[in-house]
Amino acid sequence: MRSDAQANRALLIDTAARLFVQHGDAVSMRSIAKEAGVGMGTLYRHFPDRDALIFAIGTNTFAKVRTLAASVSSAEQFDEFVEKLAELQLGALVPILTLVRREGIPQEIWDDRQRTVREIERAVAIARDAGVIREDVTATRLLIGLLMSIRPLPDNVPVDFSDELAWVRKNFIRSLKA
């Protein structure tokens, strides 16, 4: 793939992920192309339908999570890993995968998810073995707790609760400590 085509593909994935985080499933393919500054033809050349774009967001997100987890080589790096994981806004992105209209999620996405969970488990084990986090913390518990504590509120909530959401996330992370 040409470098400009790769750049457009990455831009479309990042733009779509950001818009889905901000607006949920109401985001149209047209609004994604417009926000990315590309034509509809460019969007559909890369992603023939909405499902293909959603799968690409999932694959891209799993890759980001694996990269973050792989950067943990000592227990001291665990807190930074969890904070960066929270910044990915997984609580908003994970439900996007449920929007898929095809017959289920392809096996390669499930395999990608398993590789990601294994890499997170490796990072969790480093912190757990060093006594930094509790013995009962697993990759799955970390992910579920983090997803629940960072899930965005609906767009129609009239009050800004960003400070309260930050408090919830901070206290969830604190609850992991040994």
Automatic annotation (TrEMBL):
<keyword id="KW-0804">Transcription</keyword>
<keyword id="KW-0805">Transcription regulation</keyword>
<dbReference type="InterPro" id="IPR009057">
    <property type="entry name" value="Homeodomain-like_sf"/>
</dbReference>
<protein>
    <submittedName>
        <fullName>TetR family transcriptional regulator</fullName>
    </submittedName>
</protein>
<keyword id="KW-0238">DNA-binding</keyword>
<dbReference type="InterPro" id="IPR036271">
    <property type="entry name" value="Tet_transcr_reg_TetR-rel_C_sf"/>
</dbReference>
<dbReference type="InterPro" id="IPR050109">
    <property type="entry name" value="HTH-type_TetR-like_transc_reg"/>
</dbReference>
<feature type="domain" description="HTH tetR-type">
    <location>
        <begin position="6"/>
        <end position="65"/>
    </location>
</feature>
<dbReference type="Pfam" id="PF00440">
    <property type="entry name" value="TetR_N"/>
</dbReference>
<feature type="DNA-binding region" description="H-T-H motif">
    <location>
        <begin position="28"/>
        <end position="47"/>
    </location>
</feature>
<dbReference type="GO" id="GO:0000976">
    <property type="term" value="F:transcription cis-regulatory region binding"/>
</dbReference>
<dbReference type="GO" id="GO:0003700">
    <property type="term" value="F:DNA-binding transcription factor activity"/>
</dbReference>
<dbReference type="InterPro" id="IPR001647">
    <property type="entry name" value="HTH_TetR"/>
</dbReference>
